[in-house]
């Protein structure tokens, strides 16, 4: 702020320009940019707030970062689209006032703390064999190298975009709720880590693949869903899941989990139907 008390219109590029990390959110990058150039981060955030109020641009943060020498204005919107596997997400979703986040692999970033978008694109850093799953506070080294194969399978599932973030979280939550009943069948690896998220990861990915295969076969993304007949779809889903998830145990153990999985998949299809009906391009 200058002597007259007005906000300057244009900022100057800084000398040190950190390299953006994969899926890094704009708040994390701004903090690193300010720290590297000895800039008061609180002052910059107040400036962004004032400018956003004046211009009405939801991505004002990206404009300020670009003026300070950071990546181009559209960088963070593209990273958010890649992180969420959405072809055209809303601009304001990439710059929320309060956003969930997850830490990047500490070895990839040289021990520096970097926050990324709360994505579901990968759970293991294949470069350093470290578990970096969502909500994790301790990034553990992977000792079962078969998990690398599981991780590649999970990345292929995530890249399809068939299982949205909300559905992914609901499926994982359902598996965790019923884990005490299915404990004898959920461990599919070779060397246990003593970490529930890691030890259940192979089973989670196998269940996610079963659901993604069903959606890819019967409801591919390029197919618009104008009408969903709920009861026949539920019957087909139950038949598919009971057969493909028989490895989890007897029906007396798995029926509650399958009930919840059917509800999640029907929810995904219902949301796609709603998007079709509300599409502005629909004639």
Quick tags:
283 residues, mainly alpha, two-stranded antiparallel sheet, two-stranded antiparallel ribbon, 4 strands, 4% strand, globular, disordered N terminus
Would you write up a description of this structure?
It is a single chain. This protein is mostly helical. It contains 11 helices and 4 strands. The strands form 2 sheets. A two-stranded antiparallel sheet has the order 1-2. Helix 5 packs parallel to helix 9 (201-218), helix 6 (165-177) packs antiparallel against helix 11 and helix 10 (230-244) crosses helix 11 (251-278). It is globular.
Low-confidence blocks of residues = 1-7
Residues in helix, %:
40-55%
End-to-end CA span: 51 Å
Number of strands: 4
Largest sheet: 2 strands, antiparallel
How much of the sequence lies in strands comes to under 5%
The value of Rg in angstroms is 22 Å
Class computed from helices, strands and strand pairing:
mainly alpha
The overall pLDDT, averaged over residues, is: 87
* Topology pattern, helix = H, strand = E: HHHHEEEEHHHHHHH
Tally of contiguous helical segments: 11
What best-fitting shape do the alpha-carbon axes yield? Answer: globular
| Neighbour order of strands in the largest sheet | 1-2
Summarize this entry quickly:
This protein is mainly alpha-helical and 283 residues long. Helix content is 51%, strand content 4%.
Set out the fold topology:
Blueprint: H1 26-36, H2 41-55, H3 60-67, H4 75-84, E1 101-103, E2 115-117, E3 124-125, E4 130-131, H5 146-160, H6 165-177, H7 179-186, H8 196-199, H9 201-218, H10 230-244, H11 251-278
Antiparallel strand pairs: 1-2, 3-4
